[in-house]
């Protein structure tokens, strides 16, 4: 049975410790907004997958109980930076399979500053899955241990530059575009506009990535109500967006043996997730109007252009420079500002992407509206690892 | 479509730091055993839910990759002590809904000694979900903060004693039975036999619970291969056990407002999960032969007898004393030794219960065999909270 997103909601993403809130406060805010947007009461929700990385065990219950105490199944799920899309993936499968007609997917994070330095949950880094990816590259490049995530992606950027002639200015152009987009997003952590020179002049985190090319640590929550065709019809719900196709992939042998940093950061996972999602939806990148993709670092937006089929491998730097991925171009990529400027509370990100696309496909995105958007693509990836690609279609 | 357990496997449960192993070593051992038991190759597995509480984000990938690098979806799930059954619940729903024909549910834990003192993942206890349950009782009883889990259950035991005349000897009889059962279980952490006097004479942890009535901290993993009817038929798989009914519940208002410690530790969740599972399976407690239930503390076995309908409320102390729940009685409860004696690696427990029941229903349980067992019931619960009841039936 077809699954639809009936409602979405999110908090503004914030620098940690900006607001006095607990994680359950942010989930109450985002979850209530999604339910109101769908026109569904919490008492109608049958199951709740909740995504987060940093909070204690069963934090999903503590948060969902703010919305109601109806005794329904709650699943706490975690897939690092792809956690939000993982909750959405479970929600869709539960609805498509007939286990439930109305599922609320929640995602949130209350992060500590600099939290991404170690294991994503602050645990022992040496036995963390990311350490395995990192170890492969450390052995090759002899680089230092802190902060590993920026190093892994910085090395992937240098590899792309060496192989294909991608420039620092092209990498900076990704960040300049996404910061510019976020100026119109009231949910974004940052709304300042920077040009390519500003981006290049910012503090270097790991060459060639400057601070303005790296997603920040963030607090925030997002939510989506996923319903069956039958439920939507019975309730005469409006504003539906179809989940036309979706796929999750994890690492393959290639990730660990090719010796390429681009493979280690997951470009092959993204490519395969996109291929499967297109196939299930009967759609291709040519059908897509608007994209929310995982620009945890500027380089990952370029790698993802290639993985999604928006350009041949090696041409992504030129693609962003051409203006093809902003307003007036072939696609608008990250109209929300992306992870770089909207912020990146790990468990919320994948659901916030879905929220932005739902607003875009309904024509409700205000100053950020992509004219005539009918098909949206969300791409959420986590080292460790998992990649999820979701195709959403206006009804 | 009906879902079946086609194969199970587990490691021996061990005191932490007994074996030199990483969490992925134990998952390789348990997962390989389950696949071999099912006669299924990892390349045939389509999705992998993995349950654990203490390891870093995406530890499930790190562990599942030991079994193969096929790029399939991996979900890391957590529901505190009910984590293992949560992985099984997702596996069943994915198979029943047609999302996959072959799902491998994994669960593991590599614990630190005394790990259950704080938030289950060692995080900030004050914002943990368990703290909320604890806070309700702390306000009522003014008790101290360490170790909360034993205090919560100890207080529930005292409440039961005061209300119904349950005795310390009856609580100890639960532990004596489960320790005795474990003598025949090569997978159990403890295999020593104790009588009621030994149990009562052991160190007091939180009155009336002595150390021999409390589940230990443990390392270990367990796994189950869940397949569709179609997959089983095509592969001519043998040794199948049907998942006849299953339900998960979480807290309701009652948990927080009744003022009863018995409600705070989840007896109402268990009762409702059992009711739903019986209804879905078209079975009742009268049809059940063998039970693996969540005896994290001796008192919880008594509370669960009542929740499952094995006796009227208040009569559970007499039930265990009557011998009705051991070999020769109406049911055999915890033939494996239960959490108290087999051990309790949080993420593995729910799947280890399923493993024991599958062996029992196939007649493969050796010296622990419950004669003629046809229907088994597993009960896995976590503060925080979630309760899962699963009915398994021999094919």
From TrEMBL, chains A, B:
Residues covered by the Thiolase N-terminal domain: 5-229
Keyword Transferase: yes
GO biological process: lipid transport
Class of enzymatic activity (EC top level): transferase
Pfam family, one: Thiolase_C_1
Any GO MF annotation of the entry: lipid binding
Keywords from the UniProt entry: Lipid transport, Lipid-binding, Transferase, Transport
PROSITE patterns with a match to the protein in the record: THIOLASE_2
Alphabetized Gene3D superfamilies for the sequence: 3.40.47.10
This enzyme's EC code(s): 2.3.1.176
Keyword Transport annotated: yes
Stretches assigned to the Thiolase C-terminal domain: 267-390
Protein name as it appears in the record: propanoyl-CoA C-acyltransferase
């Amino acid at each position: 049975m077809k699954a639809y997103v009936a409602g979405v909601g999110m908090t503004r993403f914030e620098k940690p410790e900006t607001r006095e809130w607990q994680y359950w406060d942010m989930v109450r805010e985002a979850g209530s907004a999604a339910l109101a947007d769908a026109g569904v009461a919490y008492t109608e929700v049958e199951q709740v997958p909740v995504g987060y990385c940093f909070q204690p065990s069963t934090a999903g219950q503590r948060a969902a109980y703010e919305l109601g105490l109806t005794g329904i199944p709650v699943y706490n799920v975690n897939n690092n930076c792809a956690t939000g899309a993982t909750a959405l993936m479970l929600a869709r499968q539960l609805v498509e399979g007939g286990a439930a007609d109305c599922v609320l997917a929640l995602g949130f994070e209350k992060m500590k500053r600099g939290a991404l330095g170690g294991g994503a949950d602050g645990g022992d880094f040496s036995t963390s899955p990311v350490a395995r990816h990192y170890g492969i590259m450390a052995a090759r490049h002899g680089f230092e241990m802190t902060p590993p995530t920026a190093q892994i992606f910085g090395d992937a950027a240098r590899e792309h530059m060496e192989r294909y002639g991608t420039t620092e200015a092209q990498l900076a152009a990704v960040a300049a575009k996404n910061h510019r987009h976020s100026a119109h997003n009231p949910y974004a952590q940052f709304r300042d506009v920077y040009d390519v020179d500003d981006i290049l002049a910012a503090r270097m985190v790991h060459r060639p990535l400057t601070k303005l090319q790296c997603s920040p640590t963030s607090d925030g929550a997002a939510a989506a109500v996923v319903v069956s065709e039958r439920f939507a019809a019975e309730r005469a719900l409006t504003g539906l967006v179809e989940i036309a196709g979706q796929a999750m992939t994890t690492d393959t042998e290639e990730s660990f043996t090719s010796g390429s940093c681009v493979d280690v950061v997951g470009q092959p996972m993204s490519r395969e997730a996109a291929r499967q999602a297109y196939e299930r939806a009967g759609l291709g990148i040519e059908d897509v109007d608007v994209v929310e993709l995982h620009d945890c670092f500027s380089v990952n937006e370029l790698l993802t252009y290639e993985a999604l089929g928006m350009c041949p491998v090696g041409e992504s730097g030129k693609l962003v420079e051409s203006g093809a991925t902003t307003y007036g171009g072939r696609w608008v990529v990250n109209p929300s500002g992306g992870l770089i400027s909207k912020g990146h509370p790990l468990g919320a990100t994948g659901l916030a992407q879905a929220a932005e696309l739902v607003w875009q496909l309904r024509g409700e995105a205000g100053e950020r509206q992509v004219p005539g958007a009918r098909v949206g693509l969300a791409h959420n990836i986590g080292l460790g690892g998992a990649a999820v690609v979701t195709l959403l279609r206006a009804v």
